[in-house]
């Protein structure tokens, strides 16, 4: 599970891009924090500016995630701007497949975000990355992919490129026992907009000053500096995620594949139980040429999602 803020990359808006007016950064009074009690710390690393805790509202007992970003550990104005932009962007996103930001505040020491709690947030990281176990249930795999694409389609429709999509940023909310017995499946929600970019209203692109994201998920067209990016970079990352869900390893881990060199290989022994349709969707996501990469709204119409298992 990852609620942390990345330290790679930089905040950049050129004159043609959508700007984030300072007036839109409207933190609540710091007193809102007195309404919550910390239950336990979830994430704290010595060199990270982020502390993540599980908290509960004192009156309603509603569980929330409290994310604190310590200003003294942010490097320069760039990372302060990223933290501020994360609050602004996530406050505007309201969708079932996106983690909701309930409120945020700021003081001289930190930014604090109060977010939706997901009851099995670490599912994908624990199962796939830690225990190296692929998702074998085809119905669940299909639903997880559909949820992520649906959330991503919404994010892109708001003029936002996530820029750091990965398994750790896909959190699982499981239904109640009664709803589960009635056939309701878990819901996947996208989180962590700390490296997001706002696209230009004229060309649908954004300027990435420095390469950012997470190794293994970064699209091959992203250069070390000054890249004009589009929502296609998120679809590359989604393709890696879907590949990982099927196999419990990234395609970039294969010894016979050179990153960004061409078609992704599929090892027969790992794909015997998976549909050819899911392989086709992955291939369309992992096109080296971003102009040939499938986009979320088209991917949601892919034949894989019409299959029954």
TrEMBL record:
- Top-rank taxon, per record: Eukaryota
Q: Which Pfam families match?
A: Pkinase
Q: Which SUPFAM superfamilies match?
A: Protein kinase-like (PK-like) (SSF56112)
Annotated protein name in UniProt: Protein kinase domain-containing protein
The beginning of the lineage is: Eukaryota, Sar, Alveolata, Ciliophora, Intramacronucleata
Which Gene3D superfamilies does its entry note? Phosphorylase Kinase, domain 1, Transferase(Phosphotransferase) domain 1
Which terms does the record give in the GO molecular function aspect?
ATP binding; protein kinase activity
Record domain Protein kinase: where: 36-305
């Amino acid at each position: 599970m990852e609620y942390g803020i990345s330290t790679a990359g930089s905040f950049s808006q050129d004159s043609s891009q959508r700007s984030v007016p300072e007036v839109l950064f409207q933190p609540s009074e710091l007193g809102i924090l007195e309404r919550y009690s910390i239950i336990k710390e979830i994430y704290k690393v010595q060199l990270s500016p982020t502390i993540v805790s599980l908290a509960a509202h004192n009156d309603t007992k509603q569980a929330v995630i409290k994310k604190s970003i310590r200003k003294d550990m942010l490097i320069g104005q760039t990372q302060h701007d990223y933290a501020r932009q994360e609050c602004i962007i996530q406050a505007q996103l309201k969708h079932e497949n996106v983690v909701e930001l309930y409120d945020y505040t700021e003081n001289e020491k930190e930014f604090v975000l109060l977010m939706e709690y997901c009851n099995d947030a670490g599912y994908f990281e624990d199962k796939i990355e830690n225990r190296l176990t692929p998702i074998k249930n085809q119905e669940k795999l299909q639903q997880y992919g559909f949820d992520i694409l649906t959330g991503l389609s919404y994010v892109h429709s708001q003029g936002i490129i996530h820029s750091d999509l990965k398994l750790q940023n896909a959190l699982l909310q499981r239904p109640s026992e009664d709803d589960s017995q009635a056939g309701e499946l878990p819901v996947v929600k996208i989180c962590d907009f700390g490296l997001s970019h706002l696209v230009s209203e004229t060309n649908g692109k954004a300027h990435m000053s420095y390469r950012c994201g997470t190794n293994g998920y970064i699209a091959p067209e992203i250069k070390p500096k000054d890249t004009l990016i589009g929502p296609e970079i998120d679809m590359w990352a989604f393709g890696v995620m879907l590949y990982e869900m099927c196999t419990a390893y990234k395609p970039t881990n294969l010894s016979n594949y050179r990153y960004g060199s061409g078609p992704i290989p599929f090892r027969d022994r790992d794909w015997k139980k998976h549909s050819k349709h899911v392989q086709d969707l992955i291939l369309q996501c992992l096109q080296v040429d971003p102009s040939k990469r499938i986009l979320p709204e088209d991917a949601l119409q892919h034949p894989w999602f019409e299959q029954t298992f």
